[in-house]
UniProtKB/TrEMBL annotation, chain A:
Protein name: Dipeptide/oligopeptide/nickel ABC transporter ATP-binding protein
Single GO term (MF): ATP hydrolysis activity
Organism: Streptomyces canus
GO biological process, one term: peptide transport
Pfam family, one: oligo_HPY
Family: Belongs to the ABC transporter superfamily.
Gene Ontology CC entries for this record: plasma membrane
NCBIfam families named among the record's database cross-references: oligo_HPY (TIGR01727)
Annotated compartments: Cell membrane
Keywords carried by this UniProt record: ATP-binding, Cell membrane, Membrane, Nucleotide-binding, Transport
UniProtKB/TrEMBL annotation, chain B:
NCBIfam families registered for this protein in UniProt: oligo_HPY, PRK11308.1
Residue segments, region Disordered: 380-439
Organism expressing this protein natively: Streptomyces canus
Record has ATP-binding as a keyword: yes
Keywords assigned by UniProt, alphabetized: ATP-binding, Nucleotide-binding, Transport
Protein's UniProt name: Peptide ABC transporter ATP-binding protein
Family: Belongs to the ABC transporter superfamily.
Biological processes annotated in GO: peptide transport; transmembrane transport
Biased composition (Low complexity): 401-414
TrEMBL record, chain C:
Native organism taxonomy: Bacteria, Bacillati, Actinomycetota, Actinomycetes, Kitasatosporales
GO biological process, one term: transmembrane transport
Organism: Streptomyces canus
Subcellular location: Cell membrane
One GO CC term, this protein: plasma membrane
Membrane topology: Multi-pass membrane protein
Identification of the protein by name: ABC transporter permease
Pfam families for the chain: BPD_transp_1, BPD_transp_1_N
Membrane spanning residue stretches: 12-30, 119-141, 153-181, 201-220, 255-277, 303-325
PANTHER family, alphabetized: DIPEPTIDE TRANSPORT SYSTEM PERMEASE PROTEIN DPPB-RELATED
């Protein structure tokens, strides 16, 4: 791995334009929305890949660009009122097909069949006027030329699979008649009805109670094992990440600041923002009489992303690197270990020292 | 919060001897459901259904529970934003349960509330100065040095700039708005602050800022908090004592350490085990997890007896028929359960699991069942041992503790009790014996 | 559900009683308060140069010298059970929904209302179809291409449509298409006699009325549609891989149109009670025209009749709208 290029654009993959080996590969993705106030750079040069059977968690706060990334993969960013003039560049490869330059109708045919999505709030994400069964049947029949009867059987089968009791009855229920957890199960049933190979889950458990969250995460994990699909899970909760991720991508200001295996990111985090996230979280498994270590200041505006390292106004270590480099030069992703990347101007020695001496003992 | 607790414990009296600020007894809030041509009341949503607790000066009481457990309603009732339908609320010894608006007016100074939604709780047409100074106008208070000066001091206190006085809420981020809400709540130097999900709408990094701020303010101003939240990690961090609510009842009320280290109510245990821990190494320890079956039942017709019996893996006949009282099993730990965890069984004669409990137990990892049986038994033995030494009791636990799977879960549960249960527990006791010989 | 309908019907009856009482008070109490005597009121009923005896007889027959509450009671009783009037030599029986006789021409009010109702229904229904279709279509297209040329143009026209008063557009249409270029007929022909002629005469009235309403509906549909298309469930529909056309028609329109049903029902109910200006402008012998006649003649029974009928339509429309809404949106529980 050491001979690999250390720049962000090509992280050990074939050159741009060629199909990568990975099942899902995103390269230098940029999604910009022109608004009256200026260009909103929601995603600004993001690269990652996910293999089948693996789970990538994208972590970040509101406005970090994590949701826009997921919509861009699905080709949903340009639909809807605000997406009309979206500017998008880069490459998204799904199973050898490039999606950014593909015909929109081709992408539509992949949606729901090869890639499916579950959303944060299952109540608003399901149509209030149609029964659960109706909505699953619709999802199935878009991509399968079968009778309504066959599709309904399939819907009941899926509801049963995701653990909804009495699926023959519940199939005719409306979303508002389901509890939050059951609704999310139904949503998952709908997403998986066509056996998609890529499942994108945007904060799938944020609107749910913890006991239900545990059920849903368990379900996602089991289904992934069963279907062998790739999962991209977007969340702000590091607890969920630790629970389910194989790989983690930390986003800040529309860019990736750290990426690596779940053990790398939790055991040897290499970016001050990741430290900040870990320090901000109260933990249920420890008695912390110490204060939490918050990240000072506010998340950046995506219109005026701070110069240099976007995190520098909030970074307690911004003054350590010599000169103005944190304020003027945007740090690129650097490999810091096998499959572990970080975009930070701090020297590896400084990072190791700060993490082991200052941060880790306080967590 | 934690700091205050420590210093208090060290320097002055133990928290228990501190003065009681708020005392709630048998509090009820039922929302009527009307039906039919004549709109007769046919039932009620029993949002809060008879809860007792007290809040002592300077402490933080955390209230946790899942959505629909009545914790938010409780918060609005104790601040008298909603009328209770039963029970009593005493504030500093004064009965405020039935006070009218005029009677409550002077108390509004002492009791303040912080809301969840930093976007919805600030009037967008008022300046920050206007919002934070509103309490002074409403209560006709002229602070020292004038209202403006005081508001600017408050803004500084919560970490905002005094120059923000003339700005409007939309110019601020979520975290800053929550600070404004806190400044407003603190304007009249309240004694009790009830915060309903104060940080749940905020980003993680901002959450920590607000939690620290509330922590500092408590120390500086000697505030008493009731913090209502669904996030058990936050509650663990901020609270001295914690009440766990389920379907309108408090099922467990205990000091923080006791609750998190050795929860007694099965629901508390399940709730805490469900919180994902940001430590991937613990993922392998999935066995600690207790998955609850199904959903919370409707508060319109809550289950009989113990309300948790429909989802509990330890439920027996008595749980279905008799409501357990919230009693102090250990100093500072009140629990409403017939078969508590980490403690002596309160109804040892009742050993046959309900069928629902058997299903529920199948979702609970074997290790948990075994461990729970072992610890309860150990405690029981300890208690009994202290009364009349009976050494055979402890050694008899071992086989039960290593029991496995569904049916065995039953025996693990009944293990310790079976010895004292003559008739009902026989079948299970036999299974138990077979299991142990198989080994 | 049944309990709900019962309760609503009961409420509707109470409401209608209140409406009649208020109307009754306005038209019978106010003249008295203004100094009119029972004699003067009776005189109106007889016409020119009555004798003292005539006045006395009429007064007694119509109960004008009775206290007001008794008169109100007779009025209500007439509606429910009919009434018999003693007209000296003969007696006149007025069947169950009896709204009395016109003071002016002694014609019973109820048959007048029933014979005029088809005209008003024709006008309202035709216009309603036109404005609903055009308004919704324009609104949807505008919403799907917000800020486009089409959107701006139509919303401009819509603004004009809302602002122009009926007597302007109506008279203009009449002038251009009935007198200048006589494409359309001038006198109303019932649908049952000659449907083509019926539509031909009503067309300019429909258009004028529809212009006003479709402008409102286009704006309503547009804003409803814009909001709906930003809903999470639309995103879900797209994520399923549905074609955009299906997303709009099945998922967007269904949700956006439901609130419009409410407004539509109310508007239709109101119109059925008499499109006063339109009927006057186009000389259509409908309920509205009857009301205008009644008012100009200070003829109380027709006014009362029309008011009550209008109130009835509004109340019924309201009930139907609620039932429809419950049928369209499964989240609405009627209880």
């Amino acid at each position: 791995m050491t001979e690999l290029s250390k720049t962000g654009a090509a992280l050990g993959e074939p050159a741009p334009g060629n199909a990568p080996d990975a099942f899902l590969a995103v390269r230098d993705l940029k999604v910009h929305f022109p608004t009256d106030d200026g260009l909103v750079k929601s995603v600004d040069g993001l690269s990652f890949q996910v293999e089948k059977g693996k789970t990538l968690c994208i972590v970040g706060e509101s406005g970090s660009g994590k949701s826009v990334t997921s919509l861009a993969i699905m080709g949903l960013h340009r639909l809807g009122a605000q997406g009309k003039h979206v500017q998008m560049s880069g490459e998204i490869w799904l199973d050898g097909k490039e999606l950014v330059s593909a015909d929109p109708d081709e992408v539509r045919r992949l949606r729901g069949r090869e890639m499916a999505m579950i959303f944060q709030d299952p109540l608003s994400a399901m149509h209030p006027y149609y029964t659960i069964g109706n909505q699953i049947v619709e999802a199935y029949r878009v991509h399968n030329d079968v009778s309504k009867k066959v599709a309904r059987k399939r819907a009941i089968e899926m509801l049963d699979r995701v653990g909804i009791p009495e699926p023959n009855k519940r199939v005719d229920g409306y979303p508002h008649e389901f509890s939050g957890g059951m609704r999310q199960r139904a949503m998952i049933a709908m997403a998986l009805v066509n056996n998609p190979e890529l499942l994108i889950a945007d904060e799938p458990t944020t609107a749910l109670d913890v006991t239900v969250q545990a059920q849903i995460l368990d379900l996602i994990r089991d289904l992934q094992k069963e279907f062998g699909s790739a999962v991209v899970l977007i969340t702000h909760d590091l607890g969920v990440v630790a629970e389910i991720a194989d790989d983690v991508l930390v986003m800040y200001g529309g860019r990736c600041v750290e990426r690596g295996s779940v053990d790398d990111v939790f055991e040897r985090p290499q970016h001050p923002y990741t430290w900040g996230l870990l320090g901000s979280m109260p933990r249920i498994d420890r008695e912390t009489s110490e204060r939490l270590i918050p990240v000072k200041g506010q998340p950046p505006s995506l219109i005026n992303v701070p110069s240099g390292c976007a995190f520098h106004p909030r970074c307690p270590y911004a003054d350590i690197p010599k000169g103005d480099v944190t304020r003027t030069v945007r740090p690129e992703l650097q490999q810091v270990g096998g499959g572990h990347f970080s975009a930070c101007h701090l020297s590896p020695e400084d990072r190791t020292r700060i993490w082991t001496e200052e941060i880790a003992p306080k967590l | 919060m934690s700091e205050t607790k420590k210093t208090d414990a060290d320097v002055t009296a133990a928290p228990d001897e501190r003065e009681i600020l708020l005392k709630v007894e048998g509090l009820q809030k039922h929302f009527p459901i009307r039906k039919g041509v004549l709109q007769r009341q046919v039932g009620a949503v029993k949002a809060v259904d008879g809860i007792d607790f007290e809040v002592r000066k300077g402490e933080t009481l955390g209230v946790v529970g899942e959505s629909g457990c009545g914790k938010s309603t409780m918060g609005r009732v104790i601040t008298r934003l909603q009328e209770p339908t039963g029970g009593s609320i005493h504030f500093e010894g004064q009965d405020i349960t039935r006070l009218n608006a005029a009677g409550m007016r002077p108390l509004r100074r002492d009791i303040q509330m912080i809301f969840q939604d930093p976007y919805g709780s600030l009037n967008p047409r008022h300046t920050i100065g206007g919002i934070v100074s509103a309490p002074f106008r409403l209560q006709d208070v002229e602070p020292e040095g004038g209202v403006k000066k005081e508001v600017q001091r408050l803004l500084e206190l919560v970490g905002l700039s005094p120059e923000h006085f003339n700005r409007y809420p939309h110019e601020f981020s979520g975290g800053q708005r929550q600070r404004i809400g806190i400044a407003r709540a603190l304007a009249l130097k309240p004694k009790l602050v009830v915060a309903d999900e104060p940080v749940s709408a905020l980003d993680v990094s901002i959450q920590a800022q607000v939690v620290n701020l509330m922590d500092d303010l408590q120390e500086e101003l000697g505030l008493t908090y009731v913090i209502i939240a669904h996030d058990l990690s936050v509650v663990r961090h901020v609270s001295d004592r914690i009440a766990v609510m389920y379907l309108g009842k408090i099922v467990e009320l205990a000091d923080r350490t006791a609750l998190y280290e050795a929860p007694m109510h099965p629901y508390t245990k399940a709730l805490m085990s469900a919180v994902p821990v940001p430590d991937p190494k613990r993922r392998g320890a999935k066995s600690e997890r207790i998955l609850l079956r199904g959903d919370v039942p409707s508060p319109i017709s809550p289950p009989s007896g113990c309300r948790f019996h429909t989802r509990c893996w330890k439920a027996t006949e008595i749980c279905r028929t008799t409501e357990p009282q919230l009693i102090e099993l250990r100093p500072g730990q009140r629990v409403a359960c017939h078969h508590p965890e980490n403690f002596e069984d309160q109804a040892p004669q009742d050993t046959v699991l309900l069928s629902v409990a058997k299903e529920a137990a199948s979702l609970v990892a074997e290790e948990v069942l075994a461990e729970s049986a072992a610890t309860s038994a150990a405690v029981a033995a300890e208690v009994e041992g202290s009364q009349e030494a009976e050494p055979s009791e402890t050694s008899a636990e071992k086989p039960a503790a290593e029991a496995t799977a569904d049916a065995e879960a039953t025996s693990a549960k009944t293990g310790p009790g079976a010895r004292t249960a003559p008739a009902t527990g026989v079948q299970e006791a036999k299974d138990d014996g077979q299991e142990s010989t198989d080994e | 559900m049944i309990s709900y309908i019962l309760r609503r019907t009961f409420a509707a009856v109470i409401l209608l009683l209140v409406v009649t009482a208020v109307t009754f008070a306005i038209f019978f109490l106010l003249p008295r308060m203004a100094g009119q005597t029972a004699d003067q009121l009776a005189q109106q009923y007889i016409g020119k140069s009555p004798t003292k005896a005539d006045i006395a007889a009429v007064k007694q027959n119509l109960g004008l010298d009775e206290p007001l509450y008794a008169q109100y009671w007779h009025f209500i009783k007439g509606i429910v059970a009919g009434a018999t009037y003693d007209l000296g030599p003969t007696t006149a029986h007025c069947d169950a929904p009896c709204f009395g006789y016109s003071f002016k021409n002694h014609v019973a009010v109820w048959p007048q209302l029933t014979s005029r109702l088809p005209v008003t229904i024709s006008l309202a229904a035709g216009a309603a179809v036109m404005w609903l279709v055009s308004g919704v279509v324009i609104g949807v297209i505008s919403a799907l291409k917000p800020r486009s040329f089409f959107d701006r143009a139509f919303m401009g026209v819509a603004l004009a449509g809302v602002s122009l008063p009926m007597f302007f557009t109506g008279n203009l249409a009449l002038l251009l298409f009935t007198y200048q270029w006589p494409i359309f007929g001038r006198t109303y022909v019932p649908f049952t006699e000659n449907p083509a002629q019926w539509a031909n005469t009503l067309f300019p009235a429909w258009c004028s009325l529809a212009l006003l309403y479709s402008a409102i509906y286009a704006r309503l549909t547009r804003s409803g549609m814009l909001e709906t298309m930003n809903e999470d469930f639309i995103r879900t529909a797209r994520a399923k891989g549905l074609r955009e056309r299906r997303v709009v028609a099945r998922h967007g329109l269904r949700a956006a149109l439901t609130p419009i049903i409410t407004v539509f029902g109310m508007d239709l109910g109101l119109l059925l009670g008499g499109a006063v200006i339109t009927e006057t402008v186009f000389s259509l012998p409908g309920i509205g025209q009857y009301a205008v006649q009644g008012i100009t003649d200070n003829d109380l029974p027709p006014i009362l009749g029309v008011t009550l009928l209008a109130a009835f339509f509004v109340v019924i429309a309201n009930l139907l709208v609620d039932l429809l809404y419950a049928a369209a949106d499964p989240r609405v529980r009627l209880s």
